[in-house]
Amino acid sequence: MLKETEIKKSNRLDFSNGWSYAPAPESTGHINIREKYGHFINGKFVEPTEGEYFDTVNPATEEKLAEVANGSHADVDAAVKAARQAYNKYWSKMSGRDRGRYIYRIARMIQEKARELAVIESMDGGKPIRESRDVDVPLAAGHFFYYAGWADKLNYAFPGREPRSLGVAGQIIPWNFPLLMAAWKIAPALATGNTIVIKPAETTPLTSMKLAEIIQEADLPHGVVNFVNGAGKTGAAIVDHPDVNKIAFTGSTGVGKIIQKAIAGSGKKLTLELGGKAANIIFEDATIDQAVEGIINGIFFNQGHVCCAGSRLFVQENIADEVRDKLIDRMSTLIVGDPLDKNTDVGAINSKEQLETINRYLEYGVQDGAEIYQTKCALPDKGYWCCPTLVGNVSQSHKLVQEEIFGPVLTIQTFRTPAEALEKANNTPYGLSGGVWTDKGSKIFGMTNGIRAGVLWANTFNKFDPTSPFGGYKESGLGREGGLHGLLPYLEL
Ligand code: NAI
Ligand code: MG
C-alpha cells in the first residue's frame, strides 16, 4: 500500500467533515437472486457436471451474493452441442422476421425488468446505480431493439450479396459492463441467425443469469442461447472447442493475444475488443468548464473500468494550471461510496484483484517520481475502493502513461501545438478511443483525422449508441461491434 505522505490529498472544497447529502439508497427488496446458479444449457438451468462452484461477491460490502458454477470442458461441450442442434433444427431455418420477433421480445422484457437488473448490476459489480439504471440497462435493451430491426433486413444491409449465418458463436465477456456486453454480443448474433454459447465474467455473472431467465421466459427455441459460467479455463474451453464457428471476446489485451494464437489456422472467425489508453485533448479555445465535466466523465465514470476511458489528459500549456485547478476542485466534489445510493458518482472497484492492480500502478507512479493527487474521500470500512486520482509530473515513457490501469486514475500532461498533441496521443500501443475539446471545427477534423483510434468524441466523451460501430486499432482489437458493421462478424457474404 502507498504511504499517506506519498499522496497529496486535495484540501479544497472538502465535504468529508462538513455537510453531505442524506443517503438515498435504492431498495433491494424487489430483487430476486437464487443462492446457487449452474449453467443455462438447452433452455434449462442445469448443475455443472463436476459440481464445482465459486462465490460472486458484492465488491462494496465483500458479502457473498450467490454461488456460481465453474464450467468444465464437459459443460462447454454440452452447451456447444445444444447450440449446434438448435442451429440446425430451428434458428438457421427460421425467417428473419420471426427471429426479429424473439429479439424484440427480449428487448421489451429487459425494459420491464429494468429496475431489478440495474440493482443487481450495481450489487454484483460495484457500479453506481445511476449508471446501471441510466446507461447499462437502457443501452442493453437498445441493442436488442436495434438488432431486432435488422433480422429481416439483412439483404438490404448488404445489397447484391447473400448474407449467410456462420453457425455457433462462442462469446466471452468482461466484468465492466456485464449486461451491456452480453447484449452487444448476443443481439447481433441472434439477428444474423447464429446460435450462442456465452460465458459471463466470474466476478459479475448475475445479470447474465437474469438474462438467461428472460430468454427462457421469452420462449426462445431451446439451445439458441446457452450460458456457461466459469473463469479463464472455461473461456479457453469455448475458444478451443472444434464445433464453434466464431469467437467474440472483450477483455484484456493479454488474453486477446492468447485467443488469437489459439484459433490461428482453425478457420474460426474472430472479433476482439481489448484495452485502451485514450487521449483526451483540451485546446486553449475549449469551453473549459464543459471540458472539465467531460474529463471527469471520461475517466471517473464506472470507476475508470472502461476500455475507452479518457485516461490520458493532454492540456494546451497556457491553460494547464487553470484546467488542473478546476479539475481538482471538481474531483473533490465527487461522491465515492455505496453503489446503490443515487447520489454516488464513483462506486466500488470491481474486485480485490483489480484494486491491487490499480494500487500497484500508483506505487510505480511514486517510484517514478510522479505527483499523485487524491481527493480526501471518506471510504466505507469494507469493500474495494479507490479515491479519484490525478497523476502529474509524468512523461510519455512512464508506465502510468503507457499502460492500461482500468481504474479512476488520470494522468495529466501538456502540449504546445496540435502536432505535438497528435504525436503524444498516438504514442501508445492502443487505439480504441479519444477526445478533442476545442471551439474550432477545423481543429476537430484535423485532430480526429490524425488520431489512430476507432472511436473519437468531440466536445463530449463516453457517449454510446447501438447504431454506432465501436472497436479499435492496433492492440485495442479487431473487428467492430454495434451498428451495421456489427452484423458483419456474424455473417459470410
Ligand atoms: P480478462 O481478459 O482475464 O477477463 C475477461 C474475460 O475473459 C473473463 O470472462 C475471463 O473469465 C475470460 N478469460 C480469462 N482468461 C481467458 C482465456 N485464457 N481464454 C478465454 N477466456 C479467458 O481480464 P481481467 O483479468 O479480468 O482484467 C485484467 C485487465 O484487463 C484489466 O485491468 C483491464 O486492463 C483489462 N480489461 C479490459 C476490458 C475491456 O473492456 N477491454 C474488460 C476487462 C478487463
Ligand atoms: Mg460480483
If you had to describe this structure to a student in words, what would you say it looks like?
- The chain is an alpha/beta fold and 493 residues long.
- The protein has two domains: 36-274 and 476-492, Aldehyde Dehydrogenase, Chain A, domain 1 (3-Layer(aba) Sandwich); 279-458, Aldehyde Dehydrogenase, Chain A, domain 2 (3-Layer(aba) Sandwich).
- Helix content is 38%, strand content 18%.
- The chain contains 15 helices and 23 strands.
- The strands form six sheets. The protein has an eight-stranded mixed beta sheet with strand order 1-15-16-17-14-13-19-20, sandwiched between helices.
- Bound molecules: 1,4-dihydronicotinamide adenine dinucleotide and magnesium ion (MG).
- 1,4-dihydronicotinamide adenine dinucleotide is lined by residues 172-176, 199, 201-202, 231-232, 235-236, 239, 250-252, 255, 258-259, 273-275, 307, 354, 357, 404, 406.
Give, in spatial order, the strands making up the sheet with the most strands. Answer: 1-15-16-17-14-13-19-20
Report the major sheet: 8 strands, mixed
Strand content: 15-25%
Q: Terminal Cα separation, in Å?
A: 54 Å
Q: What value does the Rg take, in angstroms? A: 22 Å
| Mean pLDDT across every amino acid position | 95
CATH superfamily of the largest domain: Aldehyde Dehydrogenase, Chain A, domain 1
**Reported CATH architecture of the largest domain:** 3-Layer(aba) Sandwich
Which ligands occur here?
1,4-dihydronicotinamide adenine dinucleotide, magnesium ion
What structural class results from the helix and strand content?
alpha/beta
- Low-confidence segments: none
Counting structural domains, the number is: 2
Number of helices: 15
Helix proportion: 25-40%
Record field, number of beta strands: 23
Q: Looking at CATH, which topology of the largest domain would you report?
A: Aldehyde Dehydrogenase, Chain A, domain 1
